[in-house]
Amino acid sequence: MRKLSLFLLSLCLTAAALITGAAAAGGPRLVSSSQPAVSQSVGFTGLPQDAQSLQATFTLSANTSCHFTADAALAALPGVYTTCKQDGADVTVYVTAKSGVLTRDGALTLGALSADDGATSFTVTRASGLKVLDSANAEYTYPTVEGGGSSDSGGTSGGGGSAPADYAVTIQQSAGGSISASHASAASGSTVTLTVQAGQGYVLDSLTVTGKSGGAVKLTDLGGGKYTFTMPASAVTVAASFLETPVANPLPFTDVDQDQWFHSAVEYVYSNKLMDGTAANTFSPLMATNRAMVVTILWRLEGSPVVNYAMNFGDVADGTWYTEAVRWAASENIVKGYSDTAFAPGDTVTREQLATILYRYLQRTGGGFQGDWAFPLDYADAHQVSGWAGEAMAWCTMKGLINGVGGNLLNPQGSATRAEVAQILLNLSTAELS
């Protein structure tokens, strides 16, 4: 009786070992590139046959926020669900198939882990916590997973000794885009599909597949970023290079370069139809702004309203590009004439005058100081601010609408250039005015 009990106990322990141990000789192996890149393909060889669900944690060499994109071949399987969660440098990927299996030969490319910022390069240093459930609901647990899928020797199939040898497909990621493969490893003669995605502002320059001896493997372009090749009897390395495409200047102006401080401001006012060029291909950013220009800008910012207001300005003719803007500004007391009959549309606007006009415009919608206020103008030339402009200059600088010109100077009596006005309008679009 004692011998029978010992025999049954031994049989039970043997069965348990078969479930919790590696289903394939040597256990699963991580397949990922050892070359740092902004996107890394991850997969396994040597998984249990007929794997139906999988969970694995990948540790990144850089603690960067990233996202997971399922491999195209995996995502095409019926009823497949994938998700991931990140905790610092550890990213856990979950994959399950509601019907069918994930792999029948033990090789599986999960997809790509990509840095959210599109700039941080990293490698996958290890995989851990691998749990696999097969179609018979047997669970296999691997606390740690060895690497090796990126070696030249290639992996082996998890289907037993009679299965043909598999060879590793190593992806060398590079800046500017990402590559994923339908197989982390494949037998000689198998068809492997590559998916290439160029990042924003990049285009694919070259794509190569190289065998162990360094010979090039023929690629077939399927279009849409898909390529196929026939697996040789050796491990292969897939590499791509991406070219940065020059960003076209959306502005028609030859006097506004992309590296100038006011480029984004001019782009903003031009695209929002607040300011036009002084000619078809010139903006004249350093030209002093006059009163007609300022009221026209604010009139457009207001939506170009039509008002019924009789003007007596003898220097504002009917039908000019600024006539209706002057009519609106005068009716709202935003910009007054020098007298009842003189507006002086061509007079240059100083920086303190611009601040005052802008302040009056914003006061109409509840902007500006409310009640008692005290905000010092901490500039070396603050004493040059006229008394009537003090409140406006204080509020505009406090809100970041108008800034100094350098050297701790505000230059209130200096003329406001078109570039400065464009920057003020850009500042206004993002400022907290309450």
How would you characterize the overall build of this protein?
- The radius of gyration is 34 Å and the shape is elongated.
- Helix content is 20%, strand content 27%.
- It has helices spanning 2-20, 72-75, 263-271, 291-301, 323-331, 351-363, 390-398, 418-430; strands at residues 29-31, 39-45, 51-60, 66-70, 80-87, 90-97, 108-115, 124-134, 139-145, 166-172, 177-181, 185-187, 191-198, 202-210, 220-223, 226-230, 236-244.
- β1 (29-31) and β2 form a beta hairpin.
- It is built from eight helices and 17 strands.
- The protein has two domains: 25-244, Immunoglobulin-like (Sandwich); 263-430, no CATH class.
- The strands form four sheets. A five-stranded antiparallel sheet has the order 5-6-3-8-9, with no helix packed on it.
- With 434 residues, it is an alpha+beta fold.
Any chance you could write out the topology, listing elements then pairs?
Blueprint (H helix, E strand, L loop, with lengths): L1 H19 L8 E3 L7 E7 L5 E10 L5 E5 L1 H4 L4 E8 L2 E8 L10 E8 L8 E11 L4 E7 L20 E7 L4 E5 L3 E3 L3 E8 L3 E9 L9 E4 L2 E5 L5 E9 L18 H9 L19 H11 L21 H9 L19 H13 L26 H9 L19 H13 L4
Parallel strand pairs: 10-17
Antiparallel strand pairs: 1-2, 2-7, 3-6, 3-8, 4-7, 5-6, 8-9, 10-12, 11-13, 13-16, 14-17, 15-16
Helix pairs in contact: 3-8, 4-5, 6-7
